[in-house]
Task: structure prediction
Amino acid sequence: MGSASETSNSIVKFPSRPDLTFLNETIPLFYVGQDGDGFWVARDAEGRTGGVFLLKASAVRFARNKSAPAGCALMFLNAPLELECDNEGSQIAEILAAAIGVARRRLPTLVCFIEMAIAEWRKLLAQLSQAAAGERRRAAIERELFHGRYRLASKNDDDLPLS
Result:
């Protein structure tokens, strides 16, 4: 990932383990969050094992597999974090992270443009998802209220078909 000197300003330290009133010391604790490049990181509280992943589900599965069969507690962190131990996760994510680091040093303008495009793409996906959820809610309301016999309609011009 990056060296400690590169990332110390933007990367948050892992929080301390919750005290015994919240979490028994015999239960393994894994921190899960994203690093500065957006990859998912899962690391145990003691820092002995961890991995970098492309997907959140993969990071959670890693934590559960490492603590099987007893299970573990997961603490999701919002601030960017770094693995700080050997990567036992996705080798593809590790290679991609290294490539991003090289590109950031050699082609900062291109990387900035790509990051901006990805951010805009995520905004668009969120808006589309929100619109689809609204339609699903409306359809569910129609089914519940009218048992599929009627459709909701408003009297404003926004619902009229364009000709």
Observations:
- The helical segments are 4-7, 56-66, 91-106, 108-146.
- Residues 110-151 form one domain.
- The chain has two domains: 4-106, 110-151.
